[in-house]
Amino acid sequence: MTQDDLEQAALVHKFAFVRQGHSREWLECIFKAFPRNIIYVAQLDNQVVGYIIWTQRSGFRPEVVLELEQLAVHPDHQGQGIARKLITETLPMVKGELAKKNAVLKHVVVTTRADNFAQDLYKKTLGAEIEATISNLYSADEVYMVARNIP
């Protein structure tokens, strides 16, 4: 993601996460926190249609616990495999960024609403399994999924 992608990515955020606000400000804060946060965008015809945010958890460590903090695809482009590609095509790039700091990926953590169909995507693409459910955390129950020992 570049600075020039922020406006379009903020529109994706606005339409994908209707209960959240201040989309541009939210994404700009995350963008500025590189290399803790690494953001990639998906584009079609030079338009941002999706993005993924990967976040290093608990400091810069030699074995990284990475959070798939947010994955969004504009509603007009959902169901086309964009989210899957964002995960599978960017994870090797994140591993490359980690290698620059002599670090390796250990686990991936994902949190999502308990009723979010994307749980199946996280299981299939990352091997993530539900480890815990927290009742009424944000707008509903939230599940914590962990993909352990990512190769």
UniProtKB/TrEMBL annotation:
Entry-linked Pfam families: Acetyltransf_1
Signal peptide: none
Stored InterPro entries: Acyl_CoA_acyltransferase (IPR016181), GNAT_dom (IPR000182), MshD_Acetyltransferase (IPR050276)
Family matches, as CDD domains: NAT_SF (cd04301)
SUPFAM superfamilies: Acyl-CoA N-acyltransferases (Nat)
Domain N-acetyltransferase span(s) in chain numbering: 1-150
Superkingdom, taxonomy of origin: Bacteria
PANTHER family, alphabetized: L-AMINO ACID N-ACETYLTRANSFERASE, N-ACETYLTRANSFERASE DOMAIN-CONTAINING PROTEIN
Protein name: N-acetyltransferase
Biological source species: Vibrio alfacsensis
